[in-house]
Design a protein that fits this description.
Layout (H helix, E strand, L loop, with lengths): L3 E6 L7 H17 L4 E6 L1 H5 L6 H18 L7 E4 L5 H9 L5 H6 L1 H9 L8 H4 L1 H11 L4 E3 L5 H17 L9 E3 L32 H9 L20 H9 L2 H7 L6 H10 L4 H27 L2 H29 L8 H11 L7
Parallel strand pairs: 1-2, 2-3, 4-5
The structure holds adenosine-5'-triphosphate (ATP) and magnesium ion (MG).
């Protein structure tokens, strides 16, 4: 079977190291190993508008930020299609048809939607578009017949919902038109849902607790030095807790043995460092400086590529335009197949014309 990959990000802000370790890193690795047939990367502006309807300017501004973030982590437009969701109109049509296959109670049970509604304080005023965005996400995935979706853990209920829609569609319309997607999660547990620098459960653009890929070294340093560790670890000699210590969670997500050789050779690996911290005798500044070194190792080449593309904005603009055109062609093909399966492709259906002819053949014209 062909390997087709689709992922996306909402242009609600710059991308951060949670996106990197949760999803972007996986995409770049798959791209560089060439282990795929087609890869689509979507800037989900239409989805972002479902909870930012009154602020289109924010979405508009962030389209370029996200595009620059993509290019700066090493996604290569000659090998992957980068496109803008609102410019692939087949996605909206598919969403409309799929919504007939999903119940309101099923959407209400979606844990991600539930959680996000709480986060956004929508209470009783949930925009219908936001409530139904899992359906539009199923349209995004299935339009490209994607079978692999590299995402963070919060997206699992979305992939499940998409699989259910595929199942329902193929069953109801008696044709295997749509393909069931699989989520690909990051291998490291801490990367499944990277917490914010404030220790909040998830680093999220909407919560303002992020280290952004485009942050300067000074900003990264300020953010890391201000991070919470173990509140009871006051003196260097005090025993410290590693669990729920965000600096250690980040080290779990980002550090490798190579980083120890390079920046902290007195320890072989993270287990040794953790054990010493637990016993007491390791200061917080030391672990924060180590984390800063690791982050800088990752972020420096990303910043450099960003600078390169910032000096070539016209080029980035055409990458988005070309990508959106290509994505439209692919999605339109799926839409045609969907309409055919639903038997609403009236003008391509000669049989239908023939049935109409025969049905009305007996009726004589009156004069
Ligand atoms: P918003 O707050 O606007 O929803 P976000 O920061 O959650 O923004 P999205 O665009 O919704 O970002 O998510 C894009 C992708 O990044 C998804 O695959 C999501 O699972 C992943 N992701 C987002 N935040 C994290 C995180 N903190 N850790 C791991 N993966 C993440
Ligand atoms: Mg999100």
């Amino acid at each position: 079977m062909k390997k087709i990959i689709l992922t996306g990000d909402r242009p609600t802000g710059r991308l951060h190291i949670g996106h990197y370790v949760g999803s972007l890193k996986n995409r770049v690795e798959i791209q560089n190993k060439g282990q795929y047939d087609e890869m689509y990367i979507m800037i989900a502006d239409a989805q972002a508008l479902t909870d930012n309807a009154d602020n289109p300017e924010k979405i508009r501004e962030n389209i370029m930020e996200v595009a620059l973030d993509y290019l700066s982590v090493g996604l290569d437009p000659s090998r992957v299609t980068i496109f803008i969701q609102s410019h692939v109109s087949a996605l909206t049509e598919l969403t409309f048809y799929y919504s007939n296959l999903v119940t309101v109670s099923r959407l209400q049970r979606n844990p991600t939607v539930k959680n996000e509604i709480k986060l956004r304080n929508f209470e009783a005023n949930i925009p219908v578009g936001f409530f139904t965005y899992p359906i539009s996400q199923a349209a995004d995935i299935t339009a490209f017949k994607a079978n692999i979706v590299p995402v963070g853990e919060d997206q699992l209920p979305m992939i499940e919902q998409a699989r259910e829609i595929v199942h329902a569609f193929n069953r109801v319309y008696k044709k295997d038109v749509l393909v069931k997607p699989e989520a690909v999660l990051p291998e490291t547990e801490a990367a499944l849902r990277l917490p914010g620098t404030d220790g909040n459960a998830k680093m999220s653009k909407s919560l303002g607790n992020c280290i952004y890929l485009a942050d300067s070294k000074e900003e990264v340093e300020r953010k890391i030095m201000g991070m919470y560790t173990d509140p009871d670890h006051i003196h260097v000699s005090d025993p410290g807790k590693v669990e729920n210590n965000t600096v250690f969670t980040y080290l779990d997500a980002f550090s490798t043995e190579k980083d120890f050789q390079k920046f902290l050779p007195e320890y072989k690996n993270l287990d040794e460092l953790k054990n010493h911290y637990r016993r007491g005798g390791v200061g917080d500044v030391k672990i924060k400086k180590f984390l800063l070194n690791i982050m800088e190792e990752i972020l420096t080449p990303i910043r450099e590529r960003r600078k390169y593309y910032e000096a070539r904005i016209d080029e980035v603009y055409s990458i988005l335009e070309e990508g959106s055109k290509h994505a439209s062609e692919v999605a339109n093909k799926t839409l045609q197949e969907v309409k055919e399966a639903m038997k609403i492709n009236y003008f391509e259906d000669q049989e239908l014309l023939e049935t109409y002819r025969q049905k009305y053949a007996g009726n004589k014209e009156e004069n």
